[in-house]
Amino acid sequence: MRIEQLWYFKEVVESKSISKAANKIFITQQALSQALYNLETEIGVQLFIRTPKGIEVTQKGLIFYEATLKVLQNFGDLKTICWKMENDTTYEKTPIITGSLNVYCSSMILDHFVAPVVFHCNMLYPKAEINLIEKNINADILTEICQTNSIGIFCYITGEYTKNVNSDSEKNIWYERLFLDDLCIGVSLQSSLSKKKHISNEEFFQYPLAISANNLFTINQLHRKSQLHDDSSSIKIRLMTTKWQAVIQLVSENQAITVLPRQLLNLEERMNKKGIILIPFKEKYQLACSIIKTQNNINPLENIFIQEIRRNFNRTNLISNHD
């Protein structure tokens, strides 16, 4: 029995729905159903009754639920004690980590990099709550972070908001860059564009685009930097979808082009296998990702979350030097 199984069970009971629970904890319904089945098999108790209308918790399931809450609480307290012993040399008695933290996050990195960390922290510290809010960076977000003592984890094209961050660093804003990556154009090997060493921003917008929905913000940033920024109709979107494979298929068939970071998720190697080549922008655009927060907002929950974010990005070898 794993602690994750107990957390999954708790979320399903409280959501009264496998699909709602799966969406909340960022896993597929199939994976969640399998985890519940494995848990029932291991303990030899039927926790749910499956009906055409959904699921119902059995009487034994309710008893198991009460016990699960205690186990998760104790596990969270244990993690808090370990964190305090590691980080506080004056440790005598550990207070329980409580409170809440709002995390604003760019669409591009939300699913793969930040949501799993939020889920992990909420599971380990049940008396605290981290709220993940999908929101891309804009000129007003730094003020909002200051006013609400929140954290932002944002992707942006360098130069687009760097001046805002640097000027606001004197106004109690702290930031740490997590990675810096070359922004490239994905084109089919069948396209005449594949022979080019680089492609200009203006030329990029002359072709139909296939993009994932969480990449629209980057497209809009690029458009603002082009000479076509006053003409919104110059963005020729052939396909915008949440299904990444549909974007790749359209580009590989030479029906559209797309924009991608070179290193993120080892995309260049993966795209080459799909018959897609990544070509840099003539303007040498780079995509940055930074943690942004207030300097005076320091608490155990915030520190733990930032440490876990660093660790998650480090697993992908994308942590960059501060500059």
In brief:
With 323 residues, the protein is an alpha/beta fold.
Verbal overview:
The chain has twelve helices and eleven strands. With 323 residues, it is α/β, with parallel strands linked by helices. It has three domains: 85 residues, Arc Repressor Mutant, subunit A (Orthogonal Bundle), CATH 1.10.10.10; 109 residues, Periplasmic binding protein-like II (D-Maltodextrin-Binding Protein, domain 2); 104 residues, D-Maltodextrin-Binding Protein, domain 2 (3-Layer(aba) Sandwich), CATH 3.40.190. Strands 3, 4, 5, 6, 9, 10 and 11 form a seven-stranded mixed beta sheet that branches. The chain starts with a helix and ends in an 8-residue tail after the last helix. The C terminus is likely disordered.
- CATH secondary-structure class of the largest domain: Alpha Beta
Which H/E pattern describes the elements? Answer: HHHEEHEHEHEHEHEHEHEHEEH
Give me the CATH fold name of the largest domain: D-Maltodextrin-Binding Protein, domain 2
Q: In angstroms, what is the radius of gyration?
A: 23 Å
Highlighted features:
single chain, 323 residues, alpha/beta, Arc Repressor Mutant, subunit A, D-Maltodextrin-Binding Protein, domain 2, 3 domains, 7-stranded mixed beta sheet, two-stranded antiparallel ribbon, 12 helices, globular, disordered C terminus
